[in-house]
Fold Fibrinogen-and Ig-binding protein.
Amino acid sequence: MQNQPSSSYPRTPEDDDLFSSSSVRFTPPPSMSMPRGLEDIWIGSRRFSSDHPAQPAENRRSDTLGGSMSAYDGSSGGNNNNNNNNNNYRGGGNNNNHYSSSSNHNSDNSLRDALVLQMQRQIDALTNKVEDGLAIARLGNQVVALQAEMKVQAAQLEHALSVREQVVHLQNQVVALQAQVAPVQARVAAAEAHARLAALEAQVAQVGPLQEKLSALEAQAGPVQEKLSALEAQVSPIQSQLSTLEAQVSPLQTLLSALESQLPPIHEKLSTLDATIPELWSEISLVECKKVIPVERQVSDLVAQLSALPRLQIDAGEWSTPWDWRTPEVRGSQRINFSKPFAAAPHVAVSTNTLDIGNNKNFRARVHATDVDALGFTVHATTWAGTTMYKVGVTWIAVGSPP
């Protein structure tokens, strides 16, 4: 079993990532010149090239570290037969060199480890140079952008200076125009003052007639003021009434809103009732045929019977005895005359409506009518001697034939 070579240079995850299967191409900006020897570089299995596209996997040879380290060959691919011991080491399955002894094998391993360490250092140096080149390229782009921005700012500054010169020139012109306008303004002010003075003199000449008109208006203002005061006195109760009406309107509006909210269901009920009206009319017609017509006939018969009956005259009234009516001077009887005479003596009925009695146990009272004729009757109120009664009220009614 062949021994694997050991390297004194420790491997890190960054080294494993550096020797991955992907390729990265570095293209410097036009202003940056690449150092000689960096135009086309493979770092591990990553290729940095300034003028060549990345080579496919089948056109390069890449073996694992610890077992191989190959340089890029643009034509031969994986089966490279070049036996250059300084640049190309082939540790794959197609190696044509065979080692005959273990000593040679160990020396080759040591040499290989030294070459690997040296190449690793070169690779690190080249990687740093590439990163520096990328940083320089970015700085160059930033410098170009700053130069463009400075040009724009310079153009803006020149424009601002030009505008400032124009503003100063215009300000000088304004000062000159103001110096020319000052005397003209003084003349205009004098002319306006003269015109105002003339207008004031004309108005002063009209003050006399205006004063007379003012006196006449003041004389007329007295009655007008009185009328105005009277109107204001009338306005106050009107305003109070208006406030009262407004206070009454608010609940009415609330009620109106409530009624309006009830309108839709009422309309729905009306629609339902309208739909049932024909059916109701048919039922009414049926009821009219079955019940109303017989009732109307009965009513007609009753009216005929009532018409055949004799007419009646009714008269009614009230009477009461005076206080202490049982004395000899006062009788418990009274003649009652009808309001209208009857054709003959009517039927008379009397009853008590008031009894003013004392606190005793022996109570006897009686009312009755006598001497009934077509013009009236006599009402009587009687009691026993042992009954203390102070007043009796009588209600009567008479029913008979009219004259």
Notes: Residues 13-144 form one domain. The two ends are 168 Å apart (CA to CA). The longest strand covers residues 389-400. Confidence is low (pLDDT under 50) at residues 1-9, 18-26, 32-100.
